[in-house]
Amino acid sequence: MAMADLFADEEIKKMLRAFAATNSFDYKKFFEMLGLKNKSLQELKMFFSVLDTDKNGYLETGEIKVMLQIFSPNSRHLTDKETQEFMGAGDKDEDGKIGIDEFIILVNQS
Ligand SMILES: [Ca+2]
Ligand SMILES: [Ca+2]
Fold first, then answer.
1. Where are the domains of the chain?
2. Which of 36, 51, 70, 75 lies 20 to 30 angstroms, CA to CA, from 45?
3. Is the pTM value of this prediction over 0.90?
4. From the CA of 60, which ligand is nearest?
């Protein structure tokens, strides 16, 4: 499973351009640009599992940091500030990681 199976090329490029500048990342805009709200539960789970590179069922800060690079290796790392904002918004039970349930809530809330 790759990003190309879930999103159109043009969609990905546009999203990466929007967040190219340091500290410009906004998770709500990120979800919106990828049309995540219109994806099926199955597709959201697939997307989550692509981001969860160590496949332990959770997104940790290290995985969030390199999220844009999963779309394209030339993309930048998210800054600590951007990573913390995403984690803070998604990690409802404050265990320091985002589970699939938390991720789906975050998408639906955005
Ligand atoms: Ca993980
Ligand atoms: Ca959590």
1. 9-109
2. 75
3. yes
4. 1
How far is ligand 2, taken at its centre, from the CA of residue 90, in Å?
Answer: 7
Confidence of residue 1 (pLDDT cuts 50, 70, 90): low
Binding-site residue numbers are 52, 54, 58, 63, 91, 93, 95, 97, 102
Q: What does the DSSP assignment read for 26-83?
A: -HHHHHHHTTGGGS-HHHHHHHHHHH-TT-SSEE-HHHHHTHHHHH-TTSPPPPHHHH
Question: What's the CATH code, domain 9-109?
Answer: 1.10.238.10
- Note the ligand closest to the C-alpha atom of 57: 1
- CA 94/CA 91 separation, integer angstroms: 5
**Amino acid letter, residue 44:** L
Please state the residue numbers annotated as binding site for Ca(2+): 52, 54, 58, 63, 91, 93, 95, 97, 102
